[in-house]
Structure formats: C-alpha cells, structure tokens
Amino acid sequence: xxxxxxxxxxxxxxxxxxxxxxxxxxxxxxxxxxxxxxxxxxxxxxxxxxxxxxxxxxxxxxxxxxxxxxxxxxxxxxxxxxxxxxxxxxxxxxxxxxxxxxxxxxxxxxxxxxxxxxxxxxxxxxxxxxxxxxxxxxxxxxxxxxxxxxxxxxxxxxxxxxxxxxxxxxxxxxxxxxxxxxxxxxxxxxxxxxxxxxxxxxxxxxxxxxxxxxxxxxxxxxxxxxxxxxxxxxxxxxxxxxxxxxxxxxxxxxxxxxxxxxxxxxxxxxxxxxxxxxxxxxxxxxxxxxx
Length: 291
Ligand code: SF4
Ligand code: SF4
Hints:
Layout: E1 3-8, H1 16-29, E2 35-39, E3 55-69, H2 79-83, E4 89-92, E5 97-100, H3 110-114, E6 120-134, E7 139-146, H4 153-162, E8 170-174, H5 181-187, E9 192-197, H6 201-216, E10 221-228, H7 234-241, E11 246-251, H8 254-261, H9 271-290
Parallel strand pairs: 1-8, 1-9, 2-7, 2-8, 9-10, 10-11
Antiparallel strand pairs: 3-6, 4-5, 6-7
Helix pairs in contact: 1-9, 4-5
One iron/sulfur cluster binds at residues 67, 83-84, 86, 88-89, 100, 105-111.
C-alpha cells in the first residue's frame, strides 16, 4: 500500500505548490520509487505547469448523479424534504412545486429512497475532469479540475483520489489552501501531513488553524518553513513552545521566486534549496519505512 503524504497550508501563497512539486521531483529521483502526485487544489490546479514535457495519458470527465423530481408523479408529501439533511429540496404543496437545488445537493441519494411514488430519478451532471500525465516512467501526475460554476470540490477530490494507483510507493496529495471541507477530504486518509508555512504573522495565524484541525483529526504532521529568512521570530517561538516538528526550512531566494514565476523551478535549483529538500525527503523515507 502506498505511503500517503498530504501537503497543506492554512492559506494560499505560502509555497505549497513549490514544496509539492519539488518533493515529487526529489522523491522520484530516489531509488526509482514509483510516485504519484495528485493535484487536489481542484479550483486552481497548477502542478502540471512545472512538468511541460510530461506525456498526456488520459483525460476523463467527472460526473455526479443529480436527482430530478417529476411533478406529474409527485404527491407533494414532503417526505424527501425530511430525508434531505442538506436542505436541498423545496416542496410547496399548495403551489404543486417540487425542485432540487443543485448547488446544495450532495448526491447522497436519500431522497430517492424516501420517495414512495418513484417521482425522483437521477441525471448525470459534469462537475469536473481528471487529467493524468506521466512526467517520467516512475511518476504519475493526476490533476483534478472543478468545472467553472460547480461547488462540488469535495466530490471531485474524492474521485481524484480513487484514481491513484494503489501500488505506488508514495502518493502525494497537494491539498487546497485553507481548512475547509475540501482540505479535510484531501487529508483525512493521509498517513502523514506536511504543513507549509512562512515566517510571517499571517503565516503563523493560518498555521495555528491547520495545527488545530490536524490535532482534532489525530493526524501526524511536521512543518516546512518556506521563505525562511523573511519575517520575524514569532513563528519559531510558536513551533518551539508547542514542540512541533520542523522538517526543514527552504531559504527565501529572489532568483528562485523568479524561476517560479516562469514555471521553471525544477531545472535550476540552488544547492542550498536542494539540500533542504533532500533532508525533507530523508525524513519522509524514514516515516515510510516505519509504516
Ligand atoms: S417524496 Fe416523492 S412524492 Fe413526496 S414530495 Fe418528494 S418527490 Fe414528491
Ligand atoms: S441526493 Fe441527497 S442531498 Fe441531494 S437532494 Fe437528495 S437527499 Fe438531498
């Protein structure tokens, strides 16, 4: 079974993508391990940009089943309304009105079970797509992309994770930013979580939220400090007083930030940054061996 590592951050802009693609790159270079990277940041996936020469393996649409009420069969009994825990159904008997609100519906199917009149059927609705790339023989990169206007991030992430090859040595999940449901969906089955932060007050504030979430979920985690050298001491004080494991520090480099902007961070990695990633890779290898 694959060792699953989620890379998360309490907010965007901390360098989560940079850390994800670099770890992917360095882990794959280690002993020819088979590695998958799942881009679960489905509203704005961008991991694939850093692998322009990767071959496209396949592209598949992701659907969900959306209930539809036939008002000719419906008796407006409101049983389905009572069954729907997401308040996604509106039934107004005097108006002979019954409809499903697609943006609230979670496609759980409970209303279909509830209806004794067989008035509810399902139709397929596209909510996103999944694109698989192969940067190298031992590397899979699978990107989930939410359809514009859809709010089914969690469902797209669920489908994306089902597509991960189970026999890979390591699977990386690049999580969406924040601490909301899509993040929980991404990290809930991870064996280990890497939290990416930066030494600023904003970075610290969002890191605290992530730490609370992971402690509540009883997840093992460690912290990577990106853009080290910027900001102030408060992040370090917090990490020390809470005895949180620091996996590594990625020093801030103006030159590297410029390469990021060009999508070229894997070709010209400064030695100091290479060394930082190597030590994170070693820490992950050690965790995997203990699993
Ligand atoms: S349970 Fe069936 S019959 Fe009753 S309101 Fe819902 S759709 Fe109509
Ligand atoms: S499928 Fe589930 S969430 Fe959607 S309307 Fe029916 S009961 Fe509600």
